[in-house]
Amino acid sequence: xxxxxxxxxVFGLGANYVYGQNCPMxxxxxxxxxxxxxxxxxxxxxxxxxxxxxxxxxxxxxxxYHTTKRVCWLHANVRTxxxxxxxxxxxxxxxxxxxxxxxxxxxxxxxxxxxxxxxxxxxxxxxxxxxxxxxxxxxxxYHTTKRVCWLHANVRTxxxxxxxxxxxxxxxxxxxxxxxxxxxxxxxxxxxxITLQDIANFLGATVVVHSGVRQGADYYHSVGQAADITVxxxxxxxxxxxxxxxxxxxxxxxxxxxxxxxxxxxxxxHLHIARWEMENMSGxxxxxxxxxxxxxxxxxxxxxxICH
Length: 308
Known about the structure:
The chain has 308 residues and is α+β, with helices and mostly antiparallel strands. The chain has helices spanning 2-18, 47-55, 124-132, 190-203, 219-222, 236-246, and strands at 26-33, 38-43, 62-66, 71-75, 81-91, 103-110, 115-120, 139-143, 148-152, 158-168, 179-181, 206-211, 226-231, 253-258, 270-275, 287-290. A hairpin with a 4-residue loop joins strand 8 (139-143) and strand 9 (148-152).
């Protein structure tokens, strides 16, 4: 009986040490986290609910809340903070930030799938921590005699073999990451390119850029701070709706939904995303436009747009 009580106390204290009331969140109004993976996005939440949800989640070291949209993002890691109205950032104390520990399976290795990186002359511990700290790495394989580490793009079939070690992240720590496919299109604005990657990460899909820099009357396209995009596997209007409600593009952008049949001066359904300033922050609120909803925006431009 004494042993059972001792085990209960040890595990109980350990759990509270990682999350819960013993780990109060640091609140930072007017700040939000950018450029990193999220584990969950939760809508129609109060600020207090957002804070306590992260506080009670051992896998959540930080969170961001939008006070007017009432959206809560639980982050997979602590990263860069930006400034903005209507935002609140939360962060756990360092001692409470539990890392996603890799499950180690000796005598096994992953087969039949894509890798993101192959790294030579590594120790087993270096291989493990490299995957553990990489949001794009859900699993890894290490060869103990060749000292080679493979970071995998997904979790797949395991095989048996001597001198092999397989590592796997817990499912709750695997963050879906999207990609941006530029093809031959060129975007000059680094800030816009970062945002396109944020969109891909947010949707967990591939953003396809159909047009970047091009000649014409559109100044934003001509200098490379605009992109016409679609998202693989997701209807374009759905993308427009999710981005508008998601809060990841509240400032600095002009986002236009082009719909065929409602606009004679464009072909194909796509989103047009232009950044007000090339790299600097303009402070302007993002303008969200659906073409064809009124006579004024049947074939609209930034000067005649109807913002929603």
